Amino acid sequence: MRLIVLLLGGCLALGGCDRQKAAERQDGAPSAATPAADQNPAKGIDRSHAGQPMPDIVIKDGDGEDTALSEFKGSPVLINLWASWCVPCVKELPTLDRLAAQKGPVDVVALSQDTGPIASVIAFLAEHGIKALDTYQDADLAMSSKAGAPVLPTSILYDSEGREVWRFVGDRDWTSAAAARDLAAAK
């Protein structure tokens, strides 16, 4: 069983964490509701959504209480969409944790897309030594849907007024000099 889990994890690492495969209608034609696999964004910075407002959604905090995403307006915020089953997401979590610990130019919100109970997200973060990031969960996948983020991980930088600056698709070392330059774009 352990071997099957390892093999599955390896396949996800090689293929990324594409959560929205093209749905097939019974006649074999792709559904218009989801993008085809070849329409997924490429890894790296995407500025095509710049200026769009932060979605008006409610997420769960580490106590299981509802929190409006709009509560993060007022200072620049990097919202990272991740899941415990996503190998690239787990790979970058420690760098997001170090970025959050720096109390730098942006707030960091790691928003779990796991659909299980919030307690499982808390346990996962503790098991992986994540200490500076607060626990947040979007079990309904509202952020992914409303922000148009079909791939995990995706990190979206919002300015202090809640407007998107850019998004980064894929995993990244958030403590690198290149990431620091990109994060400086938020005001």
The strand line-up of the biggest sheet is 2-10-9-5-6-7-3-4
- CATH homologous superfamily descriptor: Glutaredoxin
Quick one: how many beta strands? 10
Gross morphology is globular
Binned, the helix content reads 25-40%
What is the CATH topology classification name? Glutaredoxin
- What is the CATH architecture descriptor? 3-Layer(aba) Sandwich
Q: What count of domains describes the coordinates?
A: 1
> Which residues form runs of ≥5 with pLDDT under 50?
1-15, 19-38
Structural class: alpha+beta
Count, helices: 5
Protein model, in words:
It is built from five helices and ten strands. It is globular and about 35 Å long. An eight-stranded mixed β-sheet has the order 2-10-9-5-6-7-3-4. Strands 1-8 form a two-stranded antiparallel sheet. Strand 5, helix 2 (87-101) and strand 6 (107-112) form a beta-alpha-beta unit. It has helices at 2-15, 87-101, 118-127, 142-147, 177-183; strands spanning 17-18, 44-46, 58-61, 66-68, 77-82, 107-112, 136-137, 151-152, 154-158, 164-169. It has one domain: Glutaredoxin, CATH 3.40.30.10. By secondary structure, the protein is α+β, with helices and mostly antiparallel strands.
Please write out the topology.
Elements lengths: L1 H14 L1 E2 L25 E3 L11 E4 L4 E3 L8 E6 L4 H15 L5 E6 L5 H10 L8 E2 L4 H6 L3 E2 L1 E5 L5 E6 L7 H7 L4
Parallel strand pairs: 5-6, 6-7
Antiparallel strand pairs: 1-8, 2-10, 3-4, 3-7, 5-9, 9-10
Give the tags.
single chain; 187 residues; alpha+beta; Glutaredoxin; 8-stranded mixed sheet; two-stranded antiparallel sheet; 10 strands; disordered N terminus
